[in-house]
């Protein structure tokens, strides 16, 4: 087992706090366990609750560089793991047309011609790093399987070269919006953390940290409205990120109090669909401001 | 302790949650690194290693309380106060949002009101008794309205009420958990687990009466999104066509004949259209509610979804689903769509025929056809040829059948006659099956 990165659960909490991420008991526990058990951490939850932010905060707290792999449809091993620099290989073949076949073969499949992609880079790094594989649910089912070897054995097998084993195991964070069910094989290899919407108290603190200009009673009122809206059946429930945007808007308006008029004016910051706005206005019994 | 963790893993498996052996081992390994006396930490650690999906979490929570719950030293509360006073105290705590106080109250409530008084089942607790004694169902009416008048206070009142209801829901859940803990202490956790844990959301049967429609709706929307990405992903994966040799060679001239950049032919983008045909007769009423939910959710995902409903004749219902509000869409559809021409029993033959006649020309090689129904014709002509024609014209044609496969072809079901013509007819009785259909077939 490699040396632990954090000292304990309390240490995780306080260091994340210093890095500007307000964690709670369950976040701190799971991060601590991922550290001690050397397991990747799979973070799932609705958009905008701070999944990616958690990985960034871990990287800041550990003072280790963050290597990020942004997943999207159609990403394959040449974008995740490695790729042979075939242009350079072709040039090498052209340049050394006098060399023997064997030598050429050994040569063009050496490290010089290997292009590192994020995962290989994280594995080969001599310094400890944090590897963030963002939105893994966007990855095709087939491409997901490529990551299994890395996630359980911390190694990548390159057929032409051999196996690259991590000298220093990276701290791996995977995030998912649950657009598609991830494979059992992947889930089995990870520790699972579900990030939901925070409770009122924690959300108020988060907002106060991000928007310090906001008066305390306003933060409380904002959160009460947001928490009430999340109970509705909305197309897109307001996330923490949107609540923070809303708080900023309210600060800009220099509102003394969060009354009907202010809410009606600023609600579009929080809700992005016309139908959601109507529903919210009806629920809160406020008029819609018509532009 | 170790045995209890293994037992919990076993109970989860019994409830249908997939827990691998390696995950149980992780859970045990995790215990070395945490202070196991801290309940919340202990619970988070077990959840992180055993549960890998948010929809399994409620099951885990229930079972965890049974196996590791410590009911707080059953505070004896026989003497003090009347029932009325207790309720007042509860309303106060609910309004204050005092979770610690509420937890304490829930324990006292179960001790005082939850006991079933019968000679046979001494020390048996019932959650129903607590709900009845404390009038939890009507408690929301008893909260104090915040002072003040005018529009500002109507907003405040609304917020206060939402908050009150949230606390009340929490308290209800807490008393339920407490009741189960008490019983588990008496009879052992296995006895309670067998009845306390309902089916997972993905295992709910569409046709059964217990299926909670609200739960189902919540689960359907992400599934529709998955279905949509699945259909469009297929199209994107093959977006890059064959190697374009001419173009590659021409571009290689600038690098001395070395083909540095291979060029590929572009393919004409395939824009899928989805046509959904949905049986809304009363024999599959519950399923069709689900089917309509799926239709509604899908039309939000695709630009070209057309939906059709039928009983004994068929009508296009696409326009009703253009609104966001599902309930309103259904109401409007029921009022206006012409789906009944005769006696109101489903007639697949006539419906397929009228679809082919009325909209068949719109079905082309880009169309994916989804038919949702039980294929029970009420002994009328099945008109399988119309389906054959449609399946041939369309890109893909799938039939989702809410009946168990062993019931197919019994009675008036002509499932296999239809199945012969479509790409696949699949049994879709619950979300899990729908999901595997999306994953395997599409």
What is the compact description of this entry?
Chain A has helices at 9-18, 25-37, 51-62, 77-80, 86-95, 101-108, 118-124, 141-146, 148-153, 184-189, 200-210, 216-230, 240-252, 260-270, 274-284, and strands spanning 41-44, 66-70, 82-84, 114-116, 130-134, 155-158, 162-165, 171-176, 191-194. Chain A has 291 residues and is of the alpha/beta class. In chain B, the strands form two sheets. Chain B has a six-stranded mixed sheet, with helices on both faces. Chain B has a two-stranded antiparallel ribbon with strand order 1-2.
Helical/strand content category of chain B: alpha/beta
Order of helices and strands of chain A: HHEHEHEHHEHEHHEEEHEHHHHH
- For the terminal residues of chain B, how far apart are their CA atoms? 45 Å
Q: CATH top level of the largest domain in chain A?
A: Alpha Beta
Strand order of the largest sheet of chain A: 2-5-8-1-9
Q: Which pair of protein chains has the largest interface, and what are the residue counts?
A: A-B, 50 and 51 residues
Describe the strand arrangement of the main beta sheet of chain B, using strand numbers. Answer: 5-4-3-6-7-8
How many structural units, i.e. domains of chain B? 4
- Compute the number of strand runs of chain A: 9
Main pleated sheet of chain A: 5 strands, parallel
Oligomeric state of the chains present here: heterodimer
Characterize the structure shown:
- The complex is a heterodimer of chains A (291) and B (442).
- Chain A is α/β, with parallel strands linked by helices and 291 residues long.
- Helices cover 49% and strands 13% of the residues of chain A.
- Chain A folds into three domains: 9-73 and 124-194, 3-Layer(aba) Sandwich (Rossmann fold); 82-116, no CATH class; 200-283.
- Chain A is built from 15 helices and nine strands.
- In chain A, helix 11 packs across helix 12.
- Chain B contains 17 helices and eight strands.
- The radius of gyration of chain B is 29 Å and the shape is globular.
- The mean pLDDT of chain B is 79.
- In chain B, helix 4 (57-68) packs antiparallel against helix 9 (189-196), helix 10 (213-237) crosses helix 12 and helix 10 (213-237) packs parallel to helix 17 (431-440).
- Chain B folds into four domains: 2-68; 83-187, no CATH class; 213-237 and 270-441, von Willebrand factor, type A domain (Rossmann fold, 3-Layer(aba) Sandwich); 244-268, no CATH class.
- Helices cover 51% and strands 9% of the residues of chain B.
- In chain B, a hairpin with a 3-residue loop joins strand 4 and strand 5 (314-316).
- Chains A and B meet through helix 2, helix 5, helix 10, strand 9 and helix 12 of A and helix 2, helix 3, helix 8 and helix 10 of B.
